[in-house]
Amino acid sequence: MQSNYPVVHLKKGKDISIQRRHHWVFSGAIAKKDGGIAAGDLVEVVDEKGRFLAVGFYGEGSIAVRIAAFDQGPLNASFWVQSLRKAYDLRRLLGLTDNLDTNVYRLFHGEGDLMPGLIIDYYNGTAVVQAHHEGIHRHLTDIASALQSIYGENLKAVYDKSQATISGNSLVTDGFVFGTPETNQVREYGNLFEIDWEKGQKTGFFIDQRENRYLLGKYAAGKKVLNTFCYSGGFSVYALNQGAKEVHSVDISAAAVALTDQNVAINGLAAGRHRSVAADVMHYLKEVSQDFEVIVLDPPAFAKHVRSRHQAVQAYKRINSLAIKNIRSGGLLFTFSCSQVVDMTLFSHTVTAAAMEAGRQVKIIHQLTQPGDHPINIFHQETAYLKGLVLYVV
Domain limits at 42? Predict the structure, then answer.
């Protein structure tokens, strides 16, 4: 079936990545394109002989085309129902769609679910959609309708949070596409959190740390815990609910600290075991004097582009060296990087250098990654972004 979309022609040999099912076409791979193509338009991608390769969304940046489908056919309402249904079926397989203890999860994870630029997080009846390019956003109505078809009466609302992720389009504004939420409170392994999808970071909550928070809870009983870059206090709530002796939550943002305090309160946790501090994490770590038995380092992405990778590695080294130096003997350090351009090998080497600088004996007891509702596309390794280590510091 012909799509009748304008055509982008690739240079000779530049079709290899598409043949391997990678979802990006870089601008340097393009030989020529039909006239009149604008950012967000759907295009056909063909090789140097004019043979069909894929359909994708055109963009003006270094990633010129984001592949939406490797076969011909329209991206109509049925296409979106089929795509989102496949993603839903995976989450059902993972035991997330009908879970009484956990009603927050990622439904759709960009290239990991075979559609670049589309993120959908499910928050106890509200789906928050975030489009990372204009082409996806043009299909928002079909996406919302597909969500209603899949969830039925269990879906109370669909919220579009794409304003910050689509640059240069003043017509994109955040707001509800469908319905009215019944609640903004969610459960994750029985822990309660209030989600601010309108003003919060990303879609409102860092769902990708769910399994790592659960792991930390197993180690927290009776321990003094420091949760840095705490944001909404996810690690803090898990630690307190699992019997931590004391938890300190630190973030440079006063709003994040207030959100953490709110989540500690709604779980009915004793305020006497929790201290929240609005402070620079680096400065705070310099003063802890081996007082904590568990430390969590979960910073924002220090590197979002390859050109900033070296600077990011140095930042990871400094902060990990401080934590390793100042954690109590026999303590556990949960350390993470969500920088896509820093892979696990580089991160591990950086933490090794930090341990050498700190002069402590360190053992890796866990290597951590993102959970199954943030799937890694085996043909698109850029979807493997979250990596972590649990270190035992002698």
Answer: 7-69
pLDDT at 305: 65
Same domain, 161 and 267: no
Distance of CA 248 to the CA centre of its chain: 24
Asked if residue 278 is part of any domain, the answer here is yes
Cβ-Cβ contacts under 8 Å for 35 (sequence gap 6 or more): none
Q: Into how many domains does the chain fold? A: 3
Q: What is the pLDDT of residues 191-211, one digit of tens each?
A: 999 999 998 888 989 999 999
Cβ(293)–Cβ(330) below 8 Å = yes
CA-to-CA separations, 64 to 56, 312, 380, in angstroms, rounded: 9, 26, 16
176 and 93 within one domain: yes
Question: What's the average model confidence in pLDDT over 4-19?
Answer: 95
| pLDDT above 60 for 2 | no
Token digits of residue 348: 């591990």
- Helix, strand, coil percentages (3-state) for the chain, rounded to 5, are 35, 30, 40
Which active-site residues does the annotation give? 338
Residue 34 lies in a domain: yes
